[in-house]
Structures are given as C-alpha cells and as structure tokens.
Amino acid sequence: MTKTVTSLFHSEHHATTAANRLKQAGIPADAIDIWTTPHNLPPLLEDLGVSRADAYAYQEGVIRGGTVVIVRCDASEVGTVAGILNQEGVLDLDEQQAAWRSEGWEGPAAGQAGDLTGLPEMPPAGADVTVERTEVIIHGRIRIHPRRGERQTPE
Prior knowledge:
Number of strands: 8
Largest sheet: 6 strands, antiparallel
Strand content: 15-25%
Oligomer: single chain
CATH architecture: 2-Layer Sandwich
Number of helices: 5
C-alpha cells in the first residue's frame, strides 16, 4: 500500500538535506516533493490523503517561512523515511499549531468539517474495504497517511 509521509521543516535547507538523504537511501526523486510556497498546497495534500486540518496547518507553516516535505512511498519504506526526516530537524506540527493559535491563528481545528480523522477503528483483519477516511499515524513528528481511494489492509 502506498503511503504519504508529510513533515514540516523550519527551513528549506533542512528540507533539502532531508530530501537528499532520502534519495541516498533509495527513495526515488520523483516521490519527494519540497514545498516552499503555500499556493495550492492544501488541495494537493488533501488529494494525497492528508486531512483538511493538517493540510491548512502545513500551509500556515509555509506562510510562516517553513518548508513542507511530502514523500510517497510503500508501507515497507515508511520506517526508513520517517527515521531520516526525524533526524533532519522536522518540526512538531501539533506544537506549531498551538503556538500559532496563541498568536491568534484561527486555522481549522482537528475534527472540523472535512477532517475525517477520529472516526471509528479500522475494520477487522481480513476485511476488504475501500478507505473513505484518513487514518493518520504519527511517527515522531512525521505524519503518515494512506493514499485516498486505496484499499487498506491491517498491517
């Protein structure tokens, strides 16, 4: 199953360093995106399976000078990808949102319309269903999302 791994970095330099390390680890360059401008970022992220709340939080991070790294990879590569991103100065999106809210930012909160996280647990093992929600796994400061429209099987 293909996963989308998202992360927010303080600077483009850190994001580029992380992307280069991912390439050295065998992640194809065309599976790695670095975003330094907020234009069209939320719809792209939502199309990749990211919740609306997280998509707009990533956009806010970019507006505030951060850089978003998006990696599309197989489930078997998630541990490697997350490990590399965590070593390169990735920011905690939840902590960033809390700080921004204390400064008056009113971006979407988790659970608002369009954010499909927090729904009931996954179906029992062996169930063959199409996922219509975002199952977010937080691995350190990294968010891992199944691709929308793909069949999800328990791992």
